[in-house]
Amino acid sequence: MYRSAIEDLWCIYGAFGSLWESGTGDSPLGGMFAFARVERRAGQHRCSESRNRCVGTRPGKNTLRARFYDNEPHKHSTHLLTHLTHLYDAGYCSHTGVCIVRHTCTEPTCGRDPPGRANFTGQVSAVQQQGAGHNGDTMVAMVTAGRQISRHALSISLKKRNYGKLLRLGRLHVTVKQMTRKKKGLNGLRDLKSSLYGKVHQSGSGWSPVYVEDNLGVMSVGLLLASPDDAVIWRGPKKNGLIKQFLRDVDWGELDYLVVDTPPGTSDEHLSIVQYLSSAGLDGAVLVTTPQEVSLLDVRKEINFCKKVHLPVVGVVENMSSFICPSCQGESQIFPPTTGGAEKMAADMGVPFLGRLPLDPRIGKCCDEGKSFLSVEPESPAAKAYKEVIQRVEEFCSSHSNKGNFGNPVE
Amino acid sequence: MALSPKADSAADNMSGVQHVVLILSGKGGVGKSTVAAQLALALRQAGKKVGILDVDLCGPSIPRMFDVEGHDVHQCPGGWVPVYPDQDQRLALMSIGFLLQARDDAVVWRGPKKNAMIKQFIGDVVWGELDYLIIDTPPGTSDEHISVVENVRQYSPDGAVLVTTPQGVAVGDVRRELTFCRKTKLPVLGVIENMSGFVCPHCTECTNVFSKGGGEALANQFNVPFLGCVPLDPQLTRSLEEGQRFVDAFPTSTAAQAIGRVAQTILQRGEQQENMDTS
């Protein structure tokens, strides 16, 4: 078929682009050529959004598939960060070879993009130790635990919250080892977050995480949303795409610890994060639970999930163990451990028990205000308990440096 | 276009269900399953036939809460038979917990498989004649929620009850759930503030463990009804652990009364709906 000179020019640019392009936007030129490729294929609107909504392409007549790019992932890198709905690297289904924008493969291990995995190793090797926590049961305090501990560089709860707000994709708490012992409660804080909405910047080296302190950076889908009321109502493939972008495109820099916060359950997000980080090496998972049996039931499933994917379990933390009344100092158990609590469950399942965290109203308050509970109330029993847990996790991370590959979950 | 036999049977199985209520929450661990279970019991106490559908595929809690963990799901010509924890069959349960080989088996599925399972739960379970079907969902706005809403949309659900704790973190997530309801045109029956205050048994002083007032403020801000506060009650958590019926065993406790008020609101709303349909 006849091709115009302009089309040829695009192809040439595209060819050069493919030489430069080693990742996503590693070089300004790569970004430009990615733009060119998107423009080149403007006629083939593969984005799951309708043409009218998509800001990254424009109607075009060309519908030829460019010859230079046989199987590269198409990516709408020109899209604004706020236009989240198709901010992901589409990739190809490893089972059917079909673009996963419109195809949902029912294979449990699908969604991976083998050519892209190498990039994770490159990007993520700068992070010296990584951990991911798992939490079978979702409790409000789980994220709190993650936040409080994250400052001290620990792997926390791979408990992604997949709520309307892309919490589902979870927060990647990034902590850099520092000498100080301050801890910061991140997010959720309405006040802090409201000022952070839409503040993620894109540079030549990728997305910049939001630094709440010099040595603590955060990346979360919540930071990419325009308003606190925006809901992110995505199915699995889109979420996987954004997780991949978080891991590949965020310029973490030099990190000692990367803490990954996940929603409850054992679903797309958990599978994806384990698969994507397997080559870079995950130190392990921290599971958080309450003493109730209904929580322990879910955490047992989570432990089995970790075993299936060969993810080491750093240990189990029992949160909301007991409540000390601030007026009479009497101890009550709001969530009674009718079946022995987390310690017994950990012993039965053969995983370490990291400690108990009591229920303290001030923790929730600090989280809401964006303060670090450990710096506001360093002498409280809850703060001491947190420090003990953190210490144990640090010991685990330093003694086990696991950079091996994890297997695929077999169903 | 002729309907496939499968679609016909789906319509048949759900045709006996009068009202469908979803229990949603943006945040995890706020007590959705607890509220769903107690609400179902309160509605049953009010004389209705109630079913509970647990679509939390990764963490099913409903079987444990009714002490029917090891029960099997039987098949009949119309589909799956729900599990009845009581003799008079006024409470029907369906959860993936009944379908697992071992209780500790993890359900590690991606979205498409979960969607298929939810479709089966809604279409292939022989609910029979039910006044209320309560659907307990996992936290968030993900595959499960999208599938549930898509599949029950044709049965005109009464609406969704949102559960939150008073803490800002939880409220922040539940706002997004409200956005989800608005986008999917699901009516919101109201917001329940769970874990709202704890009365110390030693000194009867009430402490706001997870702050206070967040749920009510959220309801006012978004102009949705506020259904009430349910306090933290160790007796409630203990009953759930042991599979006891809390609203039956402790009807005078604050938590039970709060749940009772929520159930009354749902009943009134249901009657209004029926009146509107018949008039």
Q: What report would you give on this structure?
A:
The complex is a heterodimer of chains A (411) and B (279). Chain A is α/β, with parallel strands linked by helices and 411 residues long. Chain A has a domain of 267 residues: Rossmann fold (3-Layer(aba) Sandwich). Chain A contains twelve helices and eleven strands. Chain A is globular and about 55 Å long. Chain B is an alpha/beta fold. Chain B has one domain: P-loop containing nucleotide triphosphate hydrolases (Rossmann fold). Chain B has ten helices and ten strands. In chain B, strands 1, 2, 5, 6, 7, 8, 9 and 10 form an eight-stranded mixed β-sheet that branches. In chain B, a hairpin with a 2-residue loop joins β3 and β4. In chain B, α4 runs parallel beside α5 and α6 packs parallel to α7. The longest helix of chain B has 25 residues. Chain B starts with a helix and ends with a helix. The N terminus of chain B is likely disordered. Chains A and B meet through α4, α6, α7, α8 and α10 of A and α4, α5, α6 and α8 of B.
Present the secondary structure layout.
The complex is a heterodimer of chains A (411) and B (279).
Chain A: H1 5-20, H2 28-40, H3 114-124, E1 127-132, H4 140-150, E2 171-175, H5 190-196, E3 201-203, E4 206-208, E5 210-213, E6 216-220, H6 236-249, E7 255-260, H7 268-278, E8 285-289, H8 293-308, E9 313-324, E10 331-332, H9 341-349, E11 353-359, H10 361-369, H11 373-376, H12 381-399
Parallel strand pairs in A: 1-7, 8-9, 9-11
Antiparallel strand pairs in A: 2-6, 2-7, 3-4, 5-6, 9-10
Helix pairs in contact in A: 1-2, 3-6, 6-7, 8-9
Chain B: H1 5-15, E1 17-24, H2 32-45, E2 50-54, H3 62-65, E3 74-76, E4 79-81, E5 91-95, H4 111-124, E6 130-136, H5 143-152, E7 159-164, H6 168-183, E8 188-199, E9 206-207, H7 214-222, E10 226-232, H8 234-242, H9 246-249, H10 254-278
Parallel strand pairs in B: 1-6, 1-7, 2-5, 2-6, 7-8, 8-10
Antiparallel strand pairs in B: 3-4, 8-9
Helix pairs in contact in B: 2-10, 4-5, 6-7
